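User: Show me a protein chain along with its predicted structure.
Assistant: Here is one chain, sequence first, then structure tokens.
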Amino acid sequence: VRLKELGDGVRIFGLGFAGSLPCGGRCAVKRFRSFGVVRMVQTSSESPPKYTKEDNWDGLCRNAGIWEGNNARYDKDSIENRRMRSTVYVHTSGEREDGKPGPSDVWVHLLREGAQRYSQVYFSRDNFFSGGMFMSPYGDMDSGNRTAVRENGTTIEQIIRMEGGNDKPEGRVRIVHKVAPNEEGFSTWVVFRERRSSEALPSYNSEIPQSRKHPDELLETKYPWDLTTKAEGSTFEQLRGSWKGVKHAIGAKDSSLRESEYSFDVSYLDGKMDINFLFNHANESIELKGQHMTDKMIRFPNGQELRDLGGGVTVLTPSSIPESGNLIVEMAWVLGNTRKRISRTYKEGDWVSSAYFIETRV
């Protein structure tokens, strides 16, 4: 469901496939319809809790370890153009100055197949909070420019982690959404599919190698966390059925944390997708109808496009960045009976919130 913020306590839902009303605690909701849009005006008697800087830092540190897998590049038609093996080292070091347990520094090193050099990114507890980044308590990430439109292009990076089980390693999907300079909308997606390696991190950041032999079996699979998994049809088909979920939305400016519960049903037949949302606290429902434009892309009436990148992974972006600067960028990953989403919302070109969703098939 597309979310547009009009002011303090006011939300509008348009037609899309991302979000639910961010109402936590006790709230009063007034509803009326105008030009096919459900408008909800919300007031609250309680201040929402805060999602602190420490919460974000702890979420980043949960990714510490070695992540091995592959990365593939997709175009606007969701066609895979290139794939290669890769490994990411997330190394933590140092001690916090406030005396609390935990590291003070995080280094991220990316080693690509065949490369003798690696790219690296450094985070400290100070510079981490100045960027447009959010980390969930589970290590999911939403990171990008604080403004939606930039002359040199727009890049948004998102990560979803899934816990391992039954002797299977933990899995992670990382997506980089790209708008090239002088283009009107998103045109390229780079997808990293990774599993946590059982190999121990080097003791010191300086000991991370500049090249690495990547396991051969990780190149061809879209399921590095479970090599026995077979393709289960399109991701659109995997979404069929009834789901319930919880949304956690975090304000970019005030770090407010708002939670809401919802449920939805998905039908997918003959290239048409119908989605019926029910917001539990408001007893309000919204029906969304999408139409196949290609085998791997569904377009909704407001221009939002849902792309299937395979392996249970989808991305949701607008067909073009609107002049208003109001937009949502989202990735989702369905694995069995669990689906996780993470989204980034801009209002008038400015980043206003990030949200993560945990959904279960019922």
